[in-house]
Write a structure and sequence with these properties.
APC_suCDC26; Anaphase-promoting complex, subunit CDC26; ubl conjugation pathway
Amino acid sequence: MLRRPPTTIQITAEDIAAYEDRRASEALHAAQQARAAEVAARAASASASAGAGSEATGSNAGEAATRQTTAAMGGLGLGAQAMEGVLDDGEGRARRTREERNERIGVGRRAR
C-alpha cells in the first residue's frame, strides 16, 4: 500500500485575528438582540398596563404604544445616536483586543 506524508495545518496570526473578530461581532449582535427583546418586553408590558387606562381607547392605542416604545428605547439608550455609539464601541473594542493580542504574540505595527 502507498503511504502519503502527513498533512500539516498552519494557522497564522491573521487566521486567529479573523476568528476573534468574528466571535466579537457575533457577541455584539447577540447583545443587541437581547437588548431589543428587553425593549419589546417592556413596551408590551407598558402597553398592557396602558390598556387598562383611558388613554388606550380607540385609535389612541397605537399612538400610546408608539410613545411608550420610544420612551423605553430612549430610557435604555437605544436611540439612533446611542446605537451608533454601541456599534462604534464594539468596533473599537475589537480593534483594541486585536492590538493587545498582536502585542502578546509579538506582531508590531507596520511602519508607515
